[in-house]
TrEMBL record:
Coiled coil: none annotated. The keyword Lyase does not apply. InterPro entries: AI-2E-like. This is Permease. One of its GO terms (biological process) is transmembrane transport. Pfam families: AI-2E_transport (PF01594). Keywords: Membrane, Transmembrane, Transmembrane helix.
Length: 383
């Protein structure tokens, strides 16, 4: 390798290292692009009905904001009521437990009494776990503040992308050579359609899971069934981890009502999760974006390992976009054309061999004919 090639290789490695260090920022930008693309597609549907661009964008953003407000309006008040009940019933439960321990200590022989703990000894033993939980709570709070800032960044970027989508699109297309820009524009169109299909599929799966949760919790007469069902549907956007997180508040609220309901809720959510992971999501995603179930699971594991929770959350849209670029650029523009060229070369070689054979045969026939004519001529001369 000469000096120029070494410089190019070093520049590529440095670029990859910088991109890896900026991976979280790039994922947030990608999340903003997905959200802006979805809202832009919705605005275009409104424009087809004769609505002006400004009103269509405002209506799309209004629907999105109304959905967020409606979600928190359905979730927060019932959970606040249940939390108040929890703060009231936990001290009563501790008091009942202390009374039960007192009666147990009085009923047992004195030799065994020292081995029966009381509330004070239990609280001392639990103090390290309490301190660890408090530290974890502070970490969760700080992480929540960081998450809020990231969400605000995504929303601001979404608004900027949505204001002038064509300008940012043209800027991205200009990063490619001039002969390939029209091709990139077509690939971006397909990415938009596929992302819209993913959003539609995710909304269908989320609605089905939420509806099944509401119906099941209502049959079990669990308090705040509607809020818990909406939360289960929303957390279904997080693959694999979301259904596990949604069962925790449902079991806690059911435990406050009756202990057996907590186990019943666990069985209900296990059934819903199995139906969602084995039937609902694979069928919906295969129909909307043509993703095989195994590819979906492998992509979730891959992006979760590389990028953490944010990668797990964006695993499916990342897979959809990566699938399209691989199909269009690597398969169609590289492999297919290379195969076609090889086929043409093979056909040319076959035709050339046939022509050579025919030429050789014709030459042999000509030589034989010439020899025959010479022999006949020699016979005439002898006569």
């Amino acid at each position: 390798m000469n000096l120029g090639q070494w410089i190019g290789l070093i520049a590529i490695l440095l670029s990859l290292y910088i991109l890896w260090q900026l991976k979280e920022v790039l994922l947030l930008i990608f999340a903003a692009i997905v959200l802006a693309t979805t809202l832009n597609r919705l605005a275009r549907r409104f424009q087809r009905s004769g609505m002006r661009r400004g009103f269509a964008v405002a209506l799309s953003v209004g629907i999105f904001i109304a959905g967020i407000i409606g979600f928190f309006w359905l979730i927060v008040p019932p959970f606040a009521v249940q939390f108040q009940q929890l703060t009231y019933q936990v001290p009563r439960g501790i008091e009942r437990f202390n009374t039960w321990l007192f009666h147990l200590r009085s009923a047992l022989p004195r030799e065994i009494t020292p081995y029966i703990p009381d509330i004070n000894s239990l609280s001392q033993q639990a103090q390290p776990f309490i301190n660890r939980a408090v530290g974890t709570s502070f970490a969760v709070v700080s992480g929540s503040l960081e998450a809020v800032l990231k969400i605000l960044l995504v929303l601001v970027l979404t608004g900027m992308f949505l204001a002038e989508p064509q300008a940012y699109r043209k800027l991205f297309i200009r990063l490619f050579p001039s002969f390939y820009r029209r091709r990139v524009d077509g690939i971006l169109d397909r990415c938009e359609v596929s992302l819209e299909g993913w959003v539609t599929g995710a909304f269908i799966a989320m609605s089905v899971v939420g509806l099944m949760s509401v119906i099941g919790l209502s049959i079990l007469r669990v308090p705040a069934a509607l809020a818990l069902g909406v939360l289960a549907g929303f957390l279904n956007l997080i693959p694999n981890l979301g259904p596990t997180l949604s069962v925790i508040p449902a079991m806690a609220i059911a435990l406050l009502d009756a202990p057996w309901k907590s186990l019943a809720v666990l069985g209900l959510y296990f059934f819903i999760q199995q139906a969602e992971s084995n039937f609902i999501t694979p069928v919906v995603m295969a129909h909307q974006v043509s993703l095989l179930p195994a590819i979906t699971l492998i992509a979730q594991l891959f992006f979760a390992y590389l990028f953490g929770f944010l990668g797990l959350f964006l695993a499916l849209p990342l897979t959809v976009v990566a699938k399209i670029w691989l199909e269009e650029v690597f398969v169609k523009d590289v492999l297919d054309k290379w195969n076609g060229k090889s086929k043409r070369e093979t056909e040319f070689v076959i035709v050339s061999d046939k022509l050579n054979e025919e030429t050789a045969k014709a030459t042999d026939d000509l030589v034989v004919k010439k020899i025959t004519n010479n022999e006949e001529q020699s016979g005439i001369d002898d006569d």
